[in-house]
Amino acid sequence: MLRETYAENTRRALLDTGLRLFTERDYSAVSAEELVRSAGLTRGALYHHFNGKPGLFEAVFEEEERRAAERIDAAISPLTDPIDRADRAVQALLDVCAEHTYRHIVLQQGPIALGWSRWRELDQRHLGGLLLGIVDAALDAGRFRPYPAQLIAAAFYGALTELALNMAEFDDAEQARSQAVSLVADLLRGLAVENGSPSD
Questions:
Q1: Which of 193, 7, 19 is nearest to 100 (CA)?
Q2: CB-based contacts of 92: which residues, under 8 Å, 6+ apart?
Q3: What are residue 193's DSSP bridge partners?
Q4: What is the pLDDT of residues 119-168, one digit of tens each?
Q5: Residue of 116, 109, 31, 25 whose CA lies nearest to 64
Q6: pLDDT given at position 2
Q7: With 70 as the cut, is the pLDDT of residue 192 above it?
């Protein structure tokens, strides 16, 4: 039991240190030596638990993705109307994307550190399924125009990702987020169907 607790504490220390350093700087600027030194551990611990710096980054990346999915799910769970759920999911995702830690680790450094294919695989595992479920529900209820669900989900996630990256360039972050939310709401209205006919 003590051994398991020590192992979990060691793993947690590496994850927390990785989160801090990967948030502060680019992936390439953080060395394995700095990670273990900052965590007060050895290189052996890093390689035992994560097989090195790339594995630690991937674990940190996945924790950020899980937190994002949990926040979006919590935001939409009280709602029953498919369009309201889609709208709230967009707002929640943009809120997450506007935060420095998520934006830097997942959107900016993730594709560089993991490679595009692995980034896409992990991203779809955590957020792709959630968004696709929201789209499927709206289509099943006849509340979206009948485009393929996968295409709708891909279009919105691609748009949201690009919006999030562009929001980082604005001096007024809150204004940029507000405008992004309004823009995506307009896109949603273009897909929405009210009472069996496209909404005006």
A1: 19
A2: 71, 72, 75, 76
A3: 198
A4: 989 988 888 888 999 999 999 999 999 999 999 998 888 888 888 878 77
A5: 109
A6: 67
A7: yes
Q: Tell me the C-alpha distance between 142 and 181, whole Å.
A: 23
Q: What is the dihedral of CA 160, 161, 162, 168, to 10 degrees?
A: 100
In this predicted model, which residue has the larger pLDDT, 198 or 87?
87
Rounded Cα distance between 112 and 19, Å, is: 16
| Cross-strand partners of 198 | 193
Instruction: Return the ∠ at Cα 22 (arms to 12 and 90), rounded to 5°.
Output: 95
Q: Which of 27-36, 70-79, 169-178 has the lowest mean pLDDT?
A: 169-178
- Asked if 18 and 38 count as a contact pair (C-beta separation under 8 A), the reply is no
For residue 196, pLDDT over 60 is answered with no
**End-to-end CA gap in the chain:** 62
- Say which CATH superfamily domain 53-198 falls into: Tetracycline Repressor, domain 2 (1.10.357.10)
At residue 18, the 3 state secondary structure works out as helix
Q: Nearest-CA neighbor of 80 among 141, 127, 122?
A: 141
Please, are residues 110 and 60 in contact by the beta-carbon 8 Å criterion? no
Q: Which residues have a Cβ under 8 Å from the Cβ of 199 and sit 6 or more positions away?
A: 189, 192, 193
